[in-house]
Every structure is written in structure tokens, then in C-alpha cells.
Specification:
With 84 residues, the chain is mainly α. The protein has helices at 10-24, 29-46, 67-72.
Length: 84
């Protein structure tokens, strides 16, 4: 193979890159385990009250406010010009 071929050494570089990328997440494994155990412990203590979909709440969405009405309202700040 010619010395200037860009594919020369592709397999060893790809192998080392895959090993590096695969081992990168091993550093976060203790944090993932701690968070999982903490989440499981809280769920074990509180049960269904810890996770809910909000189905039992009977609240309405906030009322719609027309943005142009808000722009036309007078302001209390004299430095903000009114749109007329």
C-alpha cells in the first residue's frame, strides 16, 4: 500500500476509538447506580404518590391573554414607550 493512503491504519485506529468510547461511560457507572438506588428507595417509601401523571388534578389551563392587549396597556415605567 502507498504511504500516503488515508485508509492505512484505519482498523487499529477504529478499534482504539471504539474502546475509548465504550470505556468513557464506565466512569459514570457509579453515579448511575447511586441515582438508580436513590430513586428506587424513594419509590419504595412513597409508592404511587412519588410518581403520578397528574390525572387526579382538576385544574384548568391559564386564561389566554392577547399579546396585543398587553402591548397596548399603559406601563408604569416612564422609560418604556407606549405603542399607539
Amino acid at each position: 500500500m502507498h504511504k500516503l493512503c488515508p485508509l492505512q491504519g484505519l482498523i487499529p485506529r477504529a478499534t482504539s476509538l471504539a474502546q475509548l468510547g465504550g470505556s468513557f461511560f464506565l466512569a459514570f457507572l457509579p453515579a448511575v447506580l447511586v441515582i438508580s438506588l436513590l430513586f428506587s428507595a424513594i419509590y419504595f417509601v412513597y409508592g404511587q404518590d412519588f410518581i403520578h401523571g397528574g390525572d387526579h388534578l382538576r385544574s384548568a389551563p391559564p386564561p389566554y391573554l392577547d399579546p396585543f392587549d398587553l402591548l397596548d396597556a399603559p406601563t408604569v415605567d416612564p422609560m418604556v414607550p407606549l405603542r399607539r
